[in-house]
Write a structure and sequence with these properties.
about 270 residues; mainly alpha; GIY-YIG endonuclease; 12 helices
Length: about 270
């Protein structure tokens, strides 16, 4: 086996099943590391370790798939994924190189990882005012697009978060942050099911005077939006609808909705 070459390799069992990996060190050194860990039962890949123990070291062979200079991480992941797609290796724990998606862990492993994470963030709290670099934030956003959780996953998330105090509780957003959130949401139509869900969650709730005042101020001067006092005046007015349209600059349907109680029902 070449002393210095590196790249993509496969570890084959005699029956044709295999494991695909990559190495920036020499193939010879990487194969020696695999054999050593498998021999003492300390290999991180449980599937490969079980097969090694069951069938014996002599039934496995090492095959160089592609010689590469793996200085570039993106190149390594791309070429490793190419060979994974070609060979469909049964012993790879993750179906995609460079990602933990698809790995199935035992419950005790999940709990151990959770405790380690909690300990790490307790000892190394993120500094106040930390902002992710734009490229990192974009990469996270792109990576999560299109992900759909199963009903079981959603249920587990709900159970784990129940009763937990949000880390954002009590945080006051700056005017600049509010403006950014508002601009990012502008023009996005709300789905009918989202509107129905919001209406159901708000049904029966009574706003405080402070909340009403805040809503009135937020709507003031926004293209024909009314203040609470204006809505009350319309509701109590005996003027014709067409006259109120001219006075307040809103549509006939809005006037009718206010008078019927469909809009601004609390005034």
């Amino acid at each position: 086996m070449p002393e210095r070459l590196s790249g993509i390799y496969a570890i084959y069992l005699a029956d044709g099943r295999c494991y695909v990996g990559s190495t920036a060190q020499s193939f010879k050194k990487r194969w020696a590391e695999h054999r050593q860990r498998l021999a003492i039962g300390k290999h991180p890949n449980i599937h490969l370790a079980r097969a090694w123990k069951k069938y014996g070291a002599d039934t496995f062979s090492f095959l160089i798939l592609e010689v590469l200079d793996l200085v570039n991480e993106e190149t390594r992941i791309a070429r490793e994924n190419y060979w994974i797609s070609q060979l469909s290796p049964e012993f790879n724990m993750a179906p995609v190189a460079g990602s933990v998606l698809g790995i199935k862990r035992r419950e005790e492993t999940k709990q151990l990882l959770r405790q380690l994470n909690l300990k790490h963030w307790k000892e190394n709290p993120r500094p106040t005012g930390y902002t992710r670099p734009e490229d990192v934030a974009k990469a996270i956003s792109e990576g999560r697009k299109g992900i759909k959780f199963t009903e079981a996953h959603i249920s587990n998330l709900s159970t784990s978060l129940r009763g937990r105090v949000s880390p954002r509780s009590g945080v006051t957003l700056s005017e600049e942050t509010k403006a950014k959130i508002s601009n990012s949401r502008r023009g996005i139509p709300r789905k009918p099911e989202d509107s129905a869900r919001a209406a159901e969650s708000n049904r029966g709730k009574k706003r405080t005077d402070e909340q009403r005042e805040a809503i009135s101020k937020s709507l003031l001067g926004k293209g024909g939006k009314l203040t609470e006092d204006q809505a009350r005046a319309i509701k109590q007015s005996s003027a014709k609808t067409k006259d109120l349209v001219k006075i307040y600059g809103i549509s006939r349907s809005q006037i009718n909705n206010i008078r019927s109680g469909k809009s601004w029902p609390h005034v």
